[in-house]
């Protein structure tokens, strides 16, 4: 077992993310999960990501706020404690259309090109 304290989480930048601050809560470190990593992203009002696709499946868990998710031109709203599963290769865009900060957990498998612990 390993507990990683919030004070030890490091920020990271994600490509094609705007008005977003992200923390890596678990993963990419010795003693962490072997199959996936977890981030926490805070989207300011107007903040967004995409549109783009990932070669890997990802899961969002909305912790607070209302997140607009757009896939194939269809807008859906995910609210606190809703889970959004984005299949590998699916083009998605996410936007915070509210005046509140939207906070989400992001869970993804490690890319094949990245060795855990490096």
Give a verbal description of the structure.
- This protein is an all-beta fold and 118 residues long.
- 0% of the residues lie in helices and 53% in strands.
- Strands 1, 2, 3, 4, 5, 6, 7, 8 and 9 form a nine-stranded antiparallel beta sheet that branches.
Range of helix content: under 10%
Strand content: over 45%
Calculate Rg over CA atoms.
14 Å
Q: How many alpha or pi helices?
A: 0
Order of SSEs = EEEEEEEEE
**Tell me, what's the shape?**
globular
Task: Please outline the major beta sheet.
Answer: 9 strands, antiparallel
* Number of extended strands: 9
The first-to-last residue Cα distance is 19 Å
TL;DR of this structure?
The protein has 118 residues and is mainly beta. It contains no helices and 9 strands.
Write the SSE topology.
Blueprint (H helix, E strand, L loop, with lengths): L9 E3 L4 E10 L9 E17 L5 E7 L2 E5 L2 E5 L4 E4 L5 E4 L6 E8 L9
Antiparallel strand pairs: 1-2, 2-3, 3-8, 3-9, 4-7, 4-9, 5-6, 5-8
Descriptive key words:
118 residues, mainly beta, globular
């Amino acid at each position: 077992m390993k507990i990683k304290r919030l004070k030890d989480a490091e920020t990271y930048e994600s490509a094609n993310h705007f008005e977003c601050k992200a923390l890596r809560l678990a993963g990419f470190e010795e003693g962490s999960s072997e199959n996936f990593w977890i981030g926490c992203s805070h989207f300011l009002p107007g903040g967004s990501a995409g549109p783009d696709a990932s070669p890997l499946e990802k899961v969002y868990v909305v912790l607070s706020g209302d997140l607009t998710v757009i896939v194939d031109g269809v807008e859906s709203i995910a609210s606190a404690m809703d889970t959004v599963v984005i299949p590998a290769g699916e083009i998605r865009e996410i936007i915070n259309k509210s005046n509140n900060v939207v906070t989400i957990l992001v869970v993804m498998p490690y890319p094949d090109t990245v060795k855990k612990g490096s």
